[in-house]
Structure formats: structure tokens, C-alpha cells
DNA sequence: AAAATTTTTTCATATTTATTCCTCCTTTTG
DNA sequence: CAAAAGGAGGAATAAATATGAAAAAATTTT
């Protein structure tokens, strides 16, 4: 059902201007999908929909770059399964991974394209991440830790 | 000041992951721009920034398509200055414009790419807009009327 | 340079969106 | 099969964003 509903969402936002999640859940109701705004919010996140400005209001649209949608979830889960701990010192972050997974973890990090990350160095089970300064290191370390749950 | 600030915003969101408007106004504060979230909200709207999903949260980014930002406001104002009244009947909308401006109004309509609009026909001071059905006509007419204020 | 007009901003909210916590299913496993 | 485990979704609510109205600042006019 979820799959079907998300397809319906993609179809709907292509055919009409959807400006709020309530509007979208209304439209879904009409098509027999009985969902609340909460579910729509989750769907929108999973589909990576964008809310774009247009003359006379904003509107949800699909991301132009194909394949983008799929990758976001995967990056997250590769990172989760490879990483054991995240710690930081000075302007660097040290990530410990399962044996042999450091490279994979580093690659997913790079793919996120976080501008705060100057670079990464991967050994066998350790990734060193270089940030601009200590403050940024703490912030990003927290964010990475957050991704583990 | 506004101009400068908006440039600063573009620079900031390129250099670091900005996830909320509060975060952005904090960063602006640090750079000497003393603004509240309300102002940031309006700036984001004017700059047509997007909030993108990324692994581990979402983030504001600049639109990829250059020139897109500038056009949104202009479309709006051309429409405003050309159009006198918006009315509807059945599944069509009738827009009355200043003499000779119907074509311009129709072109701005088309440029909005609203999927509900099947097509437009422009005379000298009248544009006929064809929608899918009466209900849609009412809705879009309301939205167009809203653009006049 | 004072007055008038327009633009920008803030404050206070309204609106919209995300999340937490719980329930109900479905699937897996012992 | 029963219990455990995981996903999906809703209700309530927290968090984030947008907006109306008034004030302040900037600009133009007289």
C-alpha cells in the first residue's frame, strides 16, 4: 500500500500544484488512500520531494536528478552498518568501523558532500575526518552520531 | 543591506549545512547581520532556496537552475500590472487585461507551468484559460485573484 | 529639510511540517 | 504456534516556517 501511495503522490504532484501536505492528503483521500498529514510528511521525506517557489505560492515537486531519491536512504544505512563509534579531537573526527569497512564509510561520507568536511582519510577500520575548526568538528561529530540511531 | 545580506546567505549555505532558518539567522548574527527568523524566511523565499533531503537531515541549498530566482518575482509583477480582473465560468477562466496586454499575461501564465492549466488563448485585452474541470477553474481563479493583491 | 511615500523589519501569531509515542499488523524465529 | 521483532500509521504535540500589522528605516517629493 505504501509503495502504491507513494507512486500516487508522484503522479498527483505532477498533475496539479500541491502547496501543503494537507492538500496532498486530501487528494490522496479522494483516490482512496486514507492517510493523515503525518504519513504524507514521511512520504515526502522518503521521496525527497522539494517545495519550490513559483509565482503565486510554492509547490511540491519531484527532484530533477533521477536516482537521487534512492541513494539518500542507502547512504544512511551503509554508514549505520559500517560505523561503530564516532569521536572527535581538535578539528578532526575519528570514526571507528567494522574491520575493512573504513573505506566504505569514507566514501559514503564524501557522497554526502557536506561542505564543512575538508577531507577524509580511511585506513582499515578507522576514518579520520578533517574539519575547519574544533567547533565544527564537535557539531559534525554530533550529527554523525545522530545518524547511528 | 538587504542585498548584502542575501549574498551572505548564499555564501553561508554553500559553505555549511544550514538546516533551519534559526541556524541561518545565527550565522548571520555572527557576521554582523542582526536579523530575525522572520526576515530570513522572506529572504529564503526571495532567493528561492530549496530545502533538500540529505543523509542525516535536510539542508537549504541554492536552486541549480540559474536565472530561475530572478524570474519568479518578475512573472508575478508582470501579471499584476497587466491584469485587471479574473473571473471564471464552467471549466474556463476569463482574464481581462489592459488593452494589448493579453498576450503578455498569457505568456506569464504559461511560464508558471501550472499543470492544471491545459492551455490559454489570448486576444487583445482578454485571456481565456482552459482548465480540466469547473472545480479546478474555481480554485485556479482564486489563486490568480490572490496574485493581484 | 520636512513631509510623504515606499521598503524593510520586527513582534506576535497562524500555519505548516516533523516527531514522539503508541497501537496494530506482518514477518521471523525458536 | 507463541513470542519476539520490525514496520507502518495515527493522534497528539513539538518544531519550524510564513504572515499580518505595526513600527522603523530608507527614499523620494515638495
Protein model, in words:
2 copies of one chain form a homodimer. The first copy, chain A, is α+β, with helices and mostly antiparallel strands and 149 residues long. Chain A has 2 domains: 60 residues, Arc Repressor Mutant, subunit A (Orthogonal Bundle); 72 residues, Gyrase A, domain 2, CATH 3.30.1360.40. Chain A is 51% helix and 23% strand. In chain A, a hairpin with a 3-residue loop joins strand 5 and strand 6. In chain A, helix 4 runs antiparallel to helix 5. At the A-B interface, strand 1, helix 4, helix 5 and helix 6 of A face strand 1, helix 4, helix 5 and helix 6 of B. The structure holds a DNA duplex (30 and 30 nucleotides).
Task: Jot down its keywords.
51% helix; homodimer; alpha+beta; 2 domains; DNA-binding; 6 strands; Arc Repressor Mutant, subunit A; four-stranded antiparallel β-sheet; two-stranded antiparallel sheet
Structural class of chain A: alpha+beta
Unreliable stretches of chain A (pLDDT < 50, length at least 5) are none
Q: Please compute the radius of gyration of chain A using only Cα atoms.
A: 19 Å
Structurally, how many domains make up the residues of chain A? Answer: 2
Oligomer: homodimer
Just name the CATH architecture of the largest domain in chain A.
Answer: 2-Layer Sandwich
Q: How many DSSP-defined strands of chain A?
A: 6
Ends of chain A: how far apart? 27 Å
Strand and helix map with partners:
The structure is a homodimer of 149-residue chains.
Chain A (H helix, E strand, L loop, with lengths): L1 H14 L5 H10 L6 H11 L2 E5 L2 E5 L6 H15 E7 L2 E6 L4 H11 L4 E6 L3 E6 L2 H15 L1
Antiparallel strand pairs in A: 1-2, 3-4, 4-6, 5-6
Chain A binds a DNA duplex (30 and 30 nucleotides) through helix 3.
Amino acid at each position: 500500500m505504501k509503495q502504491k501511495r507513494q507512486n500516487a503522490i508522484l503522479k498527483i504532484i505532477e498533475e496539479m500544484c500541491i502547496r501543503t501536505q494537507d492538500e496532498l492528503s486530501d487528494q490522496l483521500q479522494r483516490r482512496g488512500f486514507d492517510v493523515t498529514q503525518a504519513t504524507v510528511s514521511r512520504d515526502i521525506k522518503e521521496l525527497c520531494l522539494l517545495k519550490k517557489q513559483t509565482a503565486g505560492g510554492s509547490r511540491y515537486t519531484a527532484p530533477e536528478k533521477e536516482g537521487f531519491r534512492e541513494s539518500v536512504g542507502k547512504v544512511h544505512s551503509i554508514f549505520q552498518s559500517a560505523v561503530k563509534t564516532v569521536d572527535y579531537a581538535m578539528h578532526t573526527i575519528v570514526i571507528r568501523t567494522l574491520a575493512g569497512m573504513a573505506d566504505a564509510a569514507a566514501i559514503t561520507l564524501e557522497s554526502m558532500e557536506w561542505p564543512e568536511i575538508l577531507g577524509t582519510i580511511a585506513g582499515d577500520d578507522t576514518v579520520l575526518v578533517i574539519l575547519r575548526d574544533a567547533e565544527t568538528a564537535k557539531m559534525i561529530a554530533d550529527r554523525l552520531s545522530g545518524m547511528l540511531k
